[in-house]
Structure formats: C-alpha cells, structure tokens
Design a protein that fits this description.
Blueprint lengths: L1 H13 L2 H4 L14 H10 L5 E4 L6 E7 L2 E8 L9 E8 L7 H10 L4 E5 L4 E9 L6 H23 L7
Antiparallel strand pairs: 1-2, 2-3, 3-4, 4-6, 5-6
C-alpha cells in the first residue's frame, strides 16, 4: 500500500506544469487562469488595470502603473491563451548610456524578488517579477505581491539616478 501511495506521489510531482495548471482556482483567490478577476482586484487595490492580449503570444496581459512607471503583467503557462498558471510583472526602461549587463548584475546582486536584464540589441533594461498562481493566492497575499512590486519600482529610480554617467 505504501509503495502505491509513494508511486502516486512521485508521479504527481513529476507531472508537467501544464498538467498541473488544471487545478481549480478557489473563488476567493487570485489565479492567472482568471485574468479578469486579477484585473478587477488590481482596480480594487487602486491601480489602473487595462486587460488585453499580448501581440506576441495571444495570452492575456494587463497594463498598469505604480511608483510613476508603466508596467505590464504578462500571463504564462497558458493553453491557447487561457488556463494560465503564472504571471510576470515587467517594466522596461528606455535606452541609456549607463544601461549594461553590469548594471543589471549590480541590481540583481542585492535584490531578492525582482530581476533586471539588459538587452544589448536595443540598450533597454527590464525589471521583472514572476509569480506562480497554481491553486490560487489569497487576496491578502496578492495585495502583498503588488506592494512588493511597487516597492521594487520605487527603488529603481534611486538606483538608476545613482549610476555614474559613462566617460565620453
């Protein structure tokens, strides 16, 4: 009996993420599988939330703003644009002579939740923060997720302003 239970648990742990995405979302929870509910909750928290579709993937996306910066919430792990299982917050900052992989590494070295990346093709930097929602996250936890994201956006202004201008 124990062998059957162990084999079943092992099979569940090895199940692909897309198969796990079929987990029901409790009605009072926030889930990437319910983009409208996520947008409504953002509005309830006092933020703009324009629900649309990503041109690249066809998956849902939400445009919003906090701490003086526009950002987008992208939906991932979707099946044909629905039943998504995670979200990613992204804010992209325009090309600047100070933007570099080293700048991104400096940010990443000291930050716990967000990640900065540098795109050498266009000279932009992107701040991102990923959250899985399989099984749902509570309203209180989602408010905390948004609070952390807003704090990270608030910190980036000082971080970028403190960077020295490159020598000519």
């Amino acid at each position: 009996m124990r062998l059957i239970f162990t084999a079943g648990m092992l099979a569940a742990m090895l199940m692909p993420v897309s198969a796990q995405a079929a987990v029901e979302c409790p009605s009072s929870y926030i889930c990437a599988s319910n983009p409208q509910g996520l947008a409504d909750t953002l509005r309830t928290l006092g933020y703009r939330a324009d629900l649309g579709k990503s041109e690249a993937s066809g998956n849902p996306k939400i445009s919003s703003a906090a701490s003086g910066y526009n950002y987008t919430i992208y939906f991932y792990g979707c099946e044909n644009g629905a039943n998504c299982n995670s979200i990613g917050f992204m804010a992209t900052f325009d090309k600047d002579k100070r933007n570099s992989a080293e700048l991104a590494n400096d940010w990443n070295r000291d930050k716990r939740f967000s990640t900065m990346s540098f795109d050498p093709n266009d000279g932009t930097i992107t701040l991102s923060y990923d959250v899985t929602t399989i099984g749902g996250i509570s309203q209180v936890n989602f408010a905390d997720v948004i609070s952390w994201w807003e704090a990270m956006l608030g910190q980036i202004h000082g971080f970028l302003a403190a960077q020295p201008q490159p020598k000519k």
